[in-house]
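Handout, section 4.2: multi-component inputs.
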Amino acid sequence: MTAISGEFLAPSPQEIARRLEVQRSRGSLRTSSTERDLVAAAQRGDNTAFAGLVEMHQRKAYAIARAIVYVHEDAEDAVQEAFLRAYDALGKFRPDEPFGAWLSRIVANAALDITRRKKIRKAEELSEFHADRFSDPAETEELGRRLSLALSELGDRARAVIVLHDVEGYTHVEIAKMLGMPEGTARSDLHHARRQLREMLADLKES
Amino acid sequence: MADNELQFTAKADERVTSVLRARYAAPGDDTYWEGLQTTVMARIAGSARTSWLQVAAGWARPGLVAAAAVLIIAAALFQANRDEIESVTFASVAQPDPEFIYTEHDAASQREETLRLVMSH
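Output:
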C-alpha cells in the first residue's frame, strides 16, 4: 500500500496553504471526522485527511517533543520530522491500533534523535534555553537559570520523564511506551529526577 | 538508602512543577498551529516531489549509458557510410569509364571511331 497515490502531482506549499485555509473556513477536519476515518483515508492517499491528523495531534506531539529536547525550535523540528516519518510509514500502521500512541513513539524517537545530534552541555549554551520565547514572564531570572542548569544535569531521559509526567500528565505506563523503557525505569527516573531537582534548587527555594 | 527511595515516592515540588509548566508550555496561538500544520504538509509535498526526482535520478545513469551507446553506433555508421561515399567518389574520379569520357576529336577521327565500332560488331 502506498500513502502517496498522487505523489508525482504534489501541490506547491502555496497551494497546500490555500487548501488548508479553505478546509479551516469550512470547519476543522477533526470535528467532522473520526480519527479512524482520517487514518483510513490517509492510507488511501488522501493528503487532506492526513492534514486532519496533523491538526488533531500536533499539540500533543509538540508537548512530547518539547519534553525531550532543550529548545522550542528543536521541538518544532522533531514534530515536523515525526509527521514526515509517520506519513512514510502509514502503510505499516494497523488501523486497529490507536494512532495517537503510535505517533507518540515516532515523535519521541524523532526528538531523541535530535538530542543525540545536538548535545548541549556547555553552560553558556543553556542561556539560549533560558531565553525561550514561550517561558513565563513571571519566572524569576535566577530560578530560570538555575532550573536550566539543573535540568541539564538530569540527563535526557530523566528530564523527559519528569516533564512528561509532572507537566504533561502522562502515566508511567504511557511514558515507558513512548520512550521505549520498562515501566519501573520510568518510575525510578521520575523519583530520582524529582529528588535531584529538589536538592539542586533547595537553597534557592529557602531564600 | 531510605525507604522512600526504594519505593520511588519522591513528591513533585509545586514551585518547580509550576515553573516547568510555564517553561514547557506549548504556544497558545492558533495561528502558530495553523502555520505548523501548513509547514508539515508542505514538507510532505516536498518529500513527494523529491521522491519523484529520485525516481528520475535512478533512471539517469542507464539513460545516459543508452544515449551514449546510440551516439557511438550512429557515429560509427555515419563514418562507415562516409568512407564508402568517399571511396566511390575517388574511384569515379581516378578510374573514369572510357565510354563516358567526352573527348574532343576532329571529324575524321570520329568517323574512324564509328567505323571501328561497327566493324567490331
